[in-house]
Sequence to fold (234 residues):
Amino acid sequence: MMNGFRHEIKILLPTAECEPLRSKLAALLSRDTNAGEDGEYFIRSLYFDDVNHTSYREKLAGVADRKKYRMRVYNCSDSAIKLECKEKRGDQIRKRSLSVSRECADAMIEGDFSLLRDVDDPLAREVFSLASGKGLKPSVVVDYDREAYLHSVSNVRLTFDKALHAGIGGCNVFDRELLTLPVFADGAVIFEVKYDDVLPAFLRGVISSAHGSRLALSKFTLCRDALYAFKPEH
Fold:
C-alpha cells in the first residue's frame, strides 16, 4: 500500500455472532503472537484532542482526511509505550508510531508535552507543536480486550475488540485500578478488518457471513460520548 496507507473496515457484532466467526477464522489464520494464554491482550490508549475538540468534531462531521493522536500501552505496562498518530484519508488509514519513555508518558498524562522537544522524530515535533499552538491535551482513556488473527497475503489483520470501556477516573494509563465505564451495555464487539491492497476472496466470504452492521464511529468517539454522558461538563 503506497505511503503506508491501508484499508480498514469496522463492523459492530452482536455477541452471538462472534463465536461462529471466531471459529472460522481460527481454522484459517494464525493468532497474534503477542496474545496471552487466553488468546487476548489488553489495550489502553489515552487520546489527545485540542481545546476546540477538533478530532472529535471532525469525526462526527465525517471529514474525510483527519488525524487522531494517542498514547498506547499494553496490559498497563510501561515496557512498551507508544505515541501514535492515526491518519485517515477516505477509506484508508495509516499509523505512525514512536516509542517514548515512562518519564515522557507521565508528563503527557499531566498535559505537559515539553519533553518531546528533545526527541528527534517528526511525530514528536508534530505533537509538541500541536500542544504548544492548539492546546493539545488528554481527552479520554479507551480500554478494550483484543483478539487478533493474521494472514500474510496483503498483510491482513482481523481483530475482535471486546469490553470497550471509557476511563472516568482520570488519565493514568498505568493505573490498573482506573475507574472505567462500559460503552456497550449489551456486550457488542467491534470487529476490524485491515489489509494493504486486496482482501483475499476466501476471507471476504467468511466476513460476509457475519451478521453485523458497519460502524462509522471510532472507539475514541464512542468513549468520548460515554464520558460526556457520565460527566456532561467534561
Observations:
- The two ends are 39 Å apart (CA to CA).
- Residues 15-28 form the longest helix (14 residues).
- Residues 71 and 139 are 11 Å apart (CA to CA).
